[in-house]
Amino acid sequence: MHTVVVGTSGTTAADVIAVARGNARIELSQDALDALARAREIVDALAAKPEPVYGVSTGFGALATRHISHDLRAQLQRNIVRSHAAGMGPRVEREVVRALMFLRLKTVASGHTGVRPEVARTMADILNAGITPVVHEYGSLGCSGDLAPLSHCALTLMGEGDAEGPDGTVRPAGELLAEHGIAPVELREKEGLALLNGTDGMLGMLIMALDDLDKLYKSADVSAALSLEALLGTDKVLAPELHAIRPHPGQGAAAANMAAVLKGSGLVGHFQVDEAPRVQDAYSVRCAPQVAGAGRDTLAHARLVAERELAAAVDNPVVLPDGRVESNGNFHGAPVAYVLDFLAIAAADLGSIAERRTDRLLDKNRSHGLPAFLADDAGVDSGLMIAQYTQAALVSEMKRLAVPASADSIPSSAMQEDHVSMGWSAARKLRTAVGNLNRIIAIELYAATRAIELRAGLTPAPASRAVIDALRAAGVQGPGPDRFLAPDLEAADVFVREGGVLAAVEPVTGPLA
């Protein structure tokens, strides 16, 4: 099994994916353990002094004005976890919770939080045991960290609340810890606060969305190329010299991908005998690289933000190398929230242009010789008419999901926390948008492959043929009389989500950009 070593210098997106989705084991490096011990010495020294220090010897948020005596400090740290574990709604997905816990461990291991080494070890032990705290959909405002979600994770660390075991059964966390020989943590000064105060949930979801969208944008280039081919469009618009004079890198990559897929096609540029030669194709076909390219460039910016956040130690207060413990605002989720919203906008537009190409494939007045709705016997058969309805419904929802969450702010904590990022909400809606985009691309792919097969006597590109064959092998049927359509669409969705498009195409084209 793959092992991820957590040190003091942050982590990588690949490590997050490996832990969240691949159940990679976690080890703490010696430099992390040393840094944890040094920072804890500073916190212990401050805790012994009479002067109040936020998070060490005071209350929290609007209650920070109260000095907490030594005999109440352990209770203070327990209480912040219990009271902040106030989430509601459906359970958050296991991979999100694992990413959330791992990223909090990453910050703890930086040595800037003042948490004891044994707390970090227990966090790693829980992840390695496959124990996943029950975290709920609602509770984070994306400022002062993802408070409620992280609190539910910290509750498990204390042996309280509910968690899911490696077998998928939800049980009391204390029972699960005991079964795996893990002792619950008795929190000390600052530790409860340090476990709650980060952007880890929204960052984890951003990293996973970037991983998904990287594959989806490449798959969308393939489905766009197949639609162009099925519509007998021209590939001249993909010439590299045209994209070089508008040098957006994503645009050039998308055009190159489409050109690679279409190489050797006998359909591209073929005109029906009863049609006048087309000088140019519709925007949804001709401008596919421009739209997909702009989205790719948005991905690149979001990836840069994620890398910076992965290198950060987000906590309040933080322990500095010179021994100071200082309050700060680094927990504000604005940088992450913005790019989560940007990605939802880009994904919505990619879905929108894909749906327009699908609609064109189904309309006999615009499809250049294809049967109405790609039906076997139009009128008796409805073909893919309602598949496009489903696609349109998904696009419509994506447009609603593209409304920025980060433009909103609701004051909290008696106006002490009077501006928040809503980054968690931005991340949650992006996850829905990514799932919708996958379905939209799957429907375009389903329609385009059927349309190519209906072009009797014309030979598709080798890459297109490879996609068609792989899709059929995955259980997605080709042209024919009407049948129960939902299973085909579901199989196409799984095919795209599991990387089937790229697995089919890249042995022919080489790696897509």
From TrEMBL:
Localization annotation: Cytoplasm
Domain of life assignment: Bacteria
Major localization class: cytoplasm
Record location of the 5-imidazolinone (Ala-Gly) cross-link: 143-145
InterPro entries noted in UniProt: Aromatic_Lyase (IPR001106), Fumarase/histidase_N (IPR024083), HutH (IPR005921), L-Aspartase-like (IPR008948), Phe/His_NH3-lyase_AS (IPR022313)
Pathway this chain belongs to: Amino-acid degradation; L-histidine degradation into L-glutamate; N-formimidoyl-L-glutamate from L-histidine: step 1/3
2,3-didehydroalanine (Ser) modifications at: 144
SUPFAM superfamilies recorded: L-aspartase-like
Record EC number: 4.3.1.3
Entry keyword annotation includes Nucleotide-binding: no
Record keywords: Cytoplasm, Histidine metabolism, Lyase
PTM comment, free text: Contains an active site 4-methylidene-imidazol-5-one (MIO), which is formed autocatalytically by cyclization and dehydration of residues Cys-Ser-Gly.
GO molecular function: histidine ammonia-lyase activity
Catalysed reactions, semicolon-separated: L-histidine = trans-urocanate + NH4(+)
Gene3D superfamilies listed in its UniProt record: Fumarase/aspartase (Central domain), Fumarase/aspartase (N-terminal domain)
Protein family per UniProt: Belongs to the PAL/histidase family.
PANTHER family cross-referenced by the UniProt entry: HISTIDINE AMMONIA-LYASE
Protein name: Histidine ammonia-lyase
Organism of this sequence: Streptomyces coeruleoprunus
Gene: hutH
